Amino acid sequence: MTRQRRVILEELKKAGSHPTADEVYRRVQKRIPNISMGTVYRNLEALSEHGIICRLQMSEGPMRFDASMEKHYHVRCSKCGRVGDVPASLVNNFESKVRAECEWQITGHRLEFIGICPRCQSKK
Amino acid sequence: MTRQRRVILEELKKAGSHPTADEVYRRVQKRIPNISMGTVYRNLEALSEHGIICRLQMSEGPMRFDASMEKHYHVRCSKCGRVGDVPASLVNNFESKVRAECEWQITGHRLEFIGICPRCQSKK
DNA sequence: TGGCTTATTAGTAATGATAACTATTACTAA
DNA sequence: TTAGTAATAGTTATCATTACTAATAAGCCA
Question: In chain A, what is the straight-line distance between the N-terminal and C-terminal CA atoms, in Å?
Fold first, then answer.
């Protein structure tokens, strides 16, 4: 656990929402001015491989990262791209019939909601 | 509807599965040898904007395209990357509770199953 | 503590998918 | 046939991400 890795994790936690690698980079840069983008990517990768953070591949835009490991889904705002959380408890099981009737062996799924965030709703 | 666009659409339909832009390009190239990659992208884009084809942003790998417009979901093989279809009828409604309880205005979702395709299952 | 081994870094260059640009060509309607 | 528009081929640019490399820092044992 190097200083760089520690600061990257701290800033990701502070960010709260779901920053991209670049947003993490810009935050960390304020504390370690000569940090390199490669270091940010490498550490976000390492942290997610150790199950400490989560990498979110959304259907649009670059990869995002999430320090929260609780089970939840994500909503992406189609106006501004912001990403929010949807507790898994709001989503009923929908996989069982697919598992039963599909000749593929289903191992998981990726679900992302599309919507308009509160901020963009009030803008209009 | 230019010759290029027509051939792109024909080859996409013939391809059956879910080719990437590059695969479409290679197929079309056999009939129009000097076609440009840009033309392929532009036309796949145009066709999908007109609702004639469907562009699939999978969570891994490049964009894929689908000539079938029936409502269905996709499974991606985690071994080989192949993409298959899952009829929408196998998936129960799971969105209503989210719509009701989330302060975002939900407009849709993107769902992708992960699994192992029949071919990779038998390989092992 | 000091030296040794290995991992990690900063910096830069490379990659791969996609989009933008530009001069040229094809299509269309008058 | 011609002006106007749209689409093309070819090329270059962009953006996110990964790979490479020499220098630096961690961790560990004597």
Answer: 46
Cβ–Cβ < 8 Å for A26, A19: no
From chain B, the residues in CB contact with A60 under 8 A are: 57
- The contacts of residue B22 (CB under 8 Å, 6+ apart) are B37, B62
CATH of A3-66, one of 1.10.10.10, 3.30.200.20, 1.10.150.20, 1.10.287.950: 1.10.10.10
For the residues B2-20, what does the mean pLDDT come to? 92
Smallest CA–CA distance from A107 into chain B, residue: B115
Residue A113, token pair as written in the block: 């909601």
Question: What pLDDT does residue A73 have?
Answer: 95
A contacts of B92 (beta carbons < 8 Å): 92-94, 97
Q: Closest nucleotide to A37's CA, by C1' atom? A: C10
- The string of pLDDT tens digits covering residues A4-50 is 999 999 999 999 789 999 999 999 999 999 999 999 999 999 999 98
Average pLDDT, chain A: 92
Closest partner residue to A98 among B86, B104, B108, by Cβ? B86
- Closest amino acid to nucleotide D8 (CA–C1'): B39
Task: Give the SS3 label for residue B62.
Answer: coil
